[in-house]
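Supplementary notes for students who missed Thursday's class. We covered one full example, reproduced here. Read the sequence, then the structure, then the short commentary at the end.
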Amino acid sequence: MTTASGTVKAGEIEIAYAESGAGEPVILLHGGESTHIQYDTFRPLLGAGIRAIAYDQRDSGASVNPPAPYGIPDLAEDCAALIRGLGYERAHLFGSSFGGFIALQVAVAVPDVVQSLTVGATFSDASALQAPVAADIIELSPSQRDARMLAFALSERGQADEELVAELRSVLVHRSPEADARRLAAIPGYDLTERLPEITAPTLLIYGEDDPAARPEVGQKIADAIPGARLAVIPGARHGITMEFARETARLLRDFVLAHPSR
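Structure (token representation):
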């Protein structure tokens, strides 16, 4: 499947993205330790009829932003600007982990751009910073996080797969201390718990059965708060649902997107 790349200008922000396929637009929001490359092997798995677009958030990859503080609402506005800049009124969103924070924020704050919402391995508030394992990883320097991320993201079986381990290592990025600090500082003010019932987009939540941080019960609470939302739990999966369990996650996302086509 051919991959193309481009940028969208949004004020002082230049948003870089990579895409493949054609059809229903699906915006893929990466996690805290990666960039759009998290979805390089995931995008093609979404198959025919879907235009899969993965972009670099602020302080990530090839996107350009001023060295100023920002919060999750700012990152949500960037996502909405990307959708509009690509010529769409609405798009399907998929966000994993940190990307899930942003996707939920878009669905609350800019609902008119959301055709459907799928989030995985994420939280509706900053309690993510205190979650087991995740809290320990955040305290480490970026260069020290890689080893801990293996057990966090992959099952024991996955950790024994050399090819999978190499793929995970390849998508983990090391930002500058300043950029890393800005990313982490965006989280403490994040809390959508009371606003989840405002979400009107069709919503699917995908969680790993054995995720040491974003446990399935976290996803169930979010699902219970969003009208009509449903939860899918992937057996044996930890936090890396778009890596070790990419096919299962892509199948769930594809089916959900095609069940809620653009008008």
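Commentary. Residues 125 and 191 are 4 Å apart (CA to CA). The chain has a mean pLDDT of 94. If anything here is unclear, bring it to office hours.
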